[in-house]
Every structure is written in structure tokens, then in C-alpha cells.
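If you are new to this repository, start here. Below is one unmodified record pulled from the training split, so you can see the exact layout before writing a loader.
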Amino acid sequence: MHRNSTSVSTKQERIAALAKQAPSMAFTSLAYLMDMDWLTEAYRRTRKDGATGVDGMTADEYEQNLESNLQGLLDRVKSGTYHAPPVRRVHIPKGGSRTETRPIGIPTLEDKVLQRAVVMLLEPIYEQDFTACSYGFRPGRSAHQALDAFRSQLMNCRGGYVLEVDIRKFFDNLDHGHLRAFLQLRVRDGVLLRLIGKWLKAGVLEDGSVSYPDSGSPQGGVIAPPTIWQKSPP
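And here is the target side for that same chain:
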């Protein structure tokens, strides 16, 4: 299925230009930009070889009827009938620890595609807001670049103290109300706010049962946690 990714880039450039011109403006209309070209590009950018979500759907299976699947997804989003399924939780070893694990939430493939589509709307806005020293989970930036910048600044300061701080279980305890209020400083599109609200309340499947935490954001999805919430505080 051939779609026009150039039109997607053009739309993103327009969003970025508006966001840069008006750093205090909240966008009230963004979801209308999502069309079949947009979802097709989102699918192209979605990782296909990851673990499957609660429905067990693989990319090979989804691609057997790709256009109709994406059209159905788009229709549900536009009509407000899209249902966010629970994420499948697994635990992986936490770096630097032999006993601690990190919970990872695995969305369904379709959820990943839709989350990628929303990220493609939000990213051009927040890229204008991030500070120059912000490197985490940003397009075109990497941990190696962060280390290079850190080394350069340390050399310019001719040495000093380095303090490493890690907030324990930070993403597990994020307040949903605060996240929504923070998001609405820049985004007030009702469709996007409802989608993000559905993801926050989708629940977690673990050991055969579904729970619905009233705080926290599952790590492992396309849109959560880093994409929206990493802007430096004022």
C-alpha cells in the first residue's frame, strides 16, 4: 500500500512552526490531521518485531489486511469508539541490580500504531519546548550525544563534582491528574486528550488478571512515559 509520507512531514513542519512562533499557545485542533497517510506512516515507523500484546496479534497477521485494518482504526478514532486494551506486563532485570526488576507494559500492535500516530502530532510541539540539555527519547538525539555534551561541559568547568540522582519507581507513581494538567498547557484537542486518558486508564494484565492503577504510566509503550512528560520544569 503506497501512501504519501511527504504530506505527513509537511504537516509536522507546520505544527512545529506554529509551536515555535507561539510558545504559550495550546493547540485545540490536531487530530483532524490524522488520515490514512498519517496512519500508514505511523505503521511504517512502528517496530514490527517486538513482543505481542494481550491480543497476540503479530505484524504479519495485521498486514494481511493492512489497509482495511488501518481504515477501521481511523474510523474508531474519529468516532470516539476506540477502546484501549490493557497492556501486558512483563518484568525484565533492572540494570545494575541482580535482584530488582523493571515492569514493562507491552501494548497491542494496533495500540502501538495509534500511539505512534499521536506521538507524531505531539513531537513537533514539544521539540520546540525542550531545553538544549535534554537528550532522553528525542528524535535525532542519543545517550552518546548526552555523554559528549556532559564531557565537554565538565572540561570547560575544569572539573568539579558529578551527582547522579535516580528517583525510585518514578514512572510507577506519576499522578494522572498532574499529567493531564501538564499536557493541557500545550494540547487541548479533545480527541487526543480522550485517547491519552484511555491509555492511562487501560489497565494492566499480569498473571491472568487485569488491574487498573490510579497512578503511574507503563514503561514500554510508544507514547509513555518519555514522549510527553519530559519537558524541563520552568
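Two things worth knowing about this chain: Confidence is low (pLDDT under 50) at residues 225-234. The first strand starts at residue 87 and ends at 93.
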